[in-house]
Structures are given as C-alpha cells and as structure tokens.
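Internal tracking record. Fields below are filled automatically when a chain is submitted to the structure queue. Please do not edit lines marked as system-generated. If the sequence contains nonstandard residues, flag them in the REMARKS field before resubmitting.
Queue: standard
Priority: normal
Entity type: single polypeptide chain
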Amino acid sequence: MNPAGASHQGIVNYLAGPNAAIVSAHYVVSQERTTQIVSLADTAYHAGNYPINAQSVGIECRPEMDDKTVERVRKLITSLRQHFLVPCGWGRTSSSQPPDAQALI
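SYSTEM-GENERATED OUTPUT FOLLOWS
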C-alpha cells in the first residue's frame, strides 16, 4: 500500500484488516483524528523487526503531513512519554492503563 493520498480511514482499514499480522501500527494520526488500532499491551508489526516491534509504539502518518497532523503527533508522543514515564529517548516502564486516544483529540 502506498499511503500517499490515502484517507485516514483507508489507512486504518488496511492496518486493521487481513494484513494486520504482517503490518500494523498502534496509532494512525491525520489532520482529522487519532485512531488507536492496536492496544499498547499488544505488539504492532510496524518496524520490520520483532524485537523492536515488541518494545516500541507504532504511529502511522500520511507522508504529506500538515501542521495540524504534526501537532496531533506531538500531543500523542507527549501523552505516551508521560504514560510510560520516559523523559526522552528509548525506554519503557510498565503501566496498567494505556492513554486514551480520544482524549488527545
């Protein structure tokens, strides 16, 4: 799939569809909204490398991001860093409640 020009829902449908065991992401972010399609407790297949997939969060964005999309991604990353208690860079701690994507909208 070439996500350039694809709609938010089209990307969600592709990543949550029959190919989800091969390619997926935790979040899809666009100008319109943020959609969580894989629980943070589960592994999304976004990096092409299982050890990295297992310890990271996949965020899918359209290649032609505008300022509003960039701001949504920034808010999501800020929320995830607070959730996982990561001040910057790599790292992970456990938490029982993932952030609510709807609260970021």
